[in-house]
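User: ok so my PI wants both of these folded by tonight, can you help

Assistant: No problem, let's get them done. Here's the first:
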Amino acid sequence: MGLPAGFQWGVATAAYQIEGAVAEDGRGPSTWDTFAHTPGRVAGGHTGDVACDHYHRWPEDVALMADLGVDAYRFSIAWPRVQPAGSGAVNPKGLDFYERLVDGLLERGIAPAATLYHWDLPQPLEDAGGWMERDTAHRFAEFAHLAAERLGDRVATWITLNEPVVVMAYGYAFGVYAPGRTLMLDALPVAHHQLLGHGLAVRALREHGARQVGLTNHYSPAWARDASSDADRRAAGAFDDLMNRLFTDPVLGGGYPVELPAGVVRDGDLAVISAPIDFLGVNYYQPTRLAAPAEGSPLPFDMVGIEEHPKTGMGWPIVPDALLSLLRTLDTTYGDRLPPLYITENGCSFPDAVGPDGTVDDADRIAFLDAHIAAVRTAVDEGVDVRGYFAWSLMDNFEWAEGYGPRFGLVHVDYATQRRTPKRSFAWYRDLIAASRA
């Protein structure tokens, strides 16, 4: 068996990673602008000030997607471009940009899939407490209303949040991503306030007739270092609760798998959070191996290396079977409560370079994508309802705290000249998509 008729092929990006133009046409600062301009926070002192200059070059990028033959494009709407202060007055020029992009996609037969929050919180909201504050959830719903009011007649698919676990863990607990706070387990209110914002945004989107609304989570299968060790298994279970189930259980009506601080969850919140969604986005890159925590550790687990599998250019283990296992686990864990799934991100970084003949031979990426798409096919054959696959990413871009070193794209970007060069993986993916329609 193959993938079902109508299976959606796409590519994905995020606003701060590609747009640039951070001070143009009324855009306000985000937490990532502040973080990237803080010395020592981002490798090489890199920032997203210019990135891939997609704000000006979007017609070229849409043309690349049309050549690729994708059904859909997952992009994010920069909150500070639409609402520079994070509340109050809207910036019409910001919405104008996304309207041009959406219309350009539709003219090429590409369905827009808009993510409302891909980590670029307006800095004034962070100054007021950010996602540690309940009010941010209500401001997010206001932003969702503004975006859907302008674009809802043309955007059928909406994703509220991208990887809220990363915002909580990397942004507020460990401090390695914006806003760079180091609260450790005291960051748990960030989880609830993001999910409350999700539920309120679902309501706002529905009010504007949104047809497909979902949430995208980052999932990493938890492996106990020693499966025969009770302590290691408990560590893996704790990681699974905090990194996987915390952002899925309450959305699907199951409540929280961990205890949140007193007073954070209020009456009626879980009903808002568990409003029905039409799909669940799955972002997968690698599994995580866990061991019992060392004495005095602030966390209930220690992460240990996975050395028996090949690695990407960022040192991430390449384990396609873990994606298959993840899809099976979601299906068996949530059963009838699980909505249809989309792989909303999957990809890899390798040190790609343009060769003397002007081509980029990224055979490692082709092998990675081929093996992971095969895992999706197997899951579908087994009855898991997966309806689409979005490769990360359309093009090389700003890779958060790693700056411009890692390259995840199907298209190589020369950041000095902004020249786009499709890699061999681009042609491979184009052929795969075409063959699936034959």
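One down. Here's the second:
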Amino acid sequence: MRSQGVLQAEIEMVVPFFDVDSMEVVWHGHYVKYFEVARCALLDKLGHNYTQMLTAGYAWPIIDLQVRYIRGARFGQKIIVRADLIEWENRLKLHYLISDAETGERMTRGSSVQVAVDIASREMQLASPRVLVAAVEHALA
């Protein structure tokens, strides 16, 4: 079992019809979308979301994404998607867990890594910009 991050955010959603395939389970690519929704909730909670990142002059592309499928989600199923902040000083690393809202059963887990890229120079930063680190420190205080 993975350890929890220093900050978490959860979203609850019902699997929509347009996310399932002919087998009536969520198509594998949509889990990444669910991770993104939880990641945005976490960044909002952190006080440094994508809009604020752009205003600060940085883009944060994903450079690594891992997904482990355990059990497929089905149309109409209520799920919880949790994002955990794991690393932030040199890169932004998050872990994700999708679970059944009623039973708590783990269904999918994953992780993503993002790095800061200076928008003006298009250069990857070797350390996270101070504005992100300060936002994390403030959220943890």
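Strands lie at 7-14, 58-59, 62-69, 78-87, 92-100, 106-114, 117-118. The two ends are 27 Å apart (CA to CA). Good luck tonight!
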